[in-house]
Amino acid sequence: MTIYLCGFMGCGKTTVGRVLADMMSLEYTDMDAYIEKKSGMSIPQIFAEKGEDAFRRMETQAVSELGKAGGIIACGGGAMLKEINAKTAAEYGTVVYIDVPYDTCYDRISGDTNRPIVMANTKESLGEIYNERVPLYLAHSQVRADGKRSPEEIASEIKAAVEMK
Fold this sequence. Notes:
alpha/beta; globular
C-alpha cells in the first residue's frame, strides 16, 4: 500500500505521516530527505546550485521510485502540483491532501531556512502561492483530510478513508 501525503508547507505531512505509518505498520519516507540522500545535497543546495527545475525533476523521479517501494510518503509542498506526479502517484496508491488554513501553515514555516521558497518570499507572496496551490492539491488528490485536528485524528481519518477505497 502506498499513500502520498500532499499539501502546503507546514500542513503537517511529516508529523501525520509518521503517526499514520505507525498506525498502519507501514514504512515512512520523507520525500525531501530521500532526495537529499540520493543527490548528496541539501534542498537549499539543490535550489542554489542546480535550480528549482532540477529539483522538480528529482521530485518526479522520487514519486515513481517511492511509489514502487510503498508505504507512507510525505511529499514536498510542490510535488503534487505537477499533473504527471499526481497521475503516477495515483497509479501506485492514494494521494491525500492535508487541508490546513494558510495562517496555520505560515506560523509553522516562518523563518525556516531549510525552505528556499519560504526564504525567497514575504508572508503575502507565500499566501498567493498557497492560494494558487490549493486548487491543484484538491484536483490531484483522491482524499481530503481536515488538518485542523490533532495528528492522531488526521491519521485516523486518512486510514479509514484509504481502507474504504
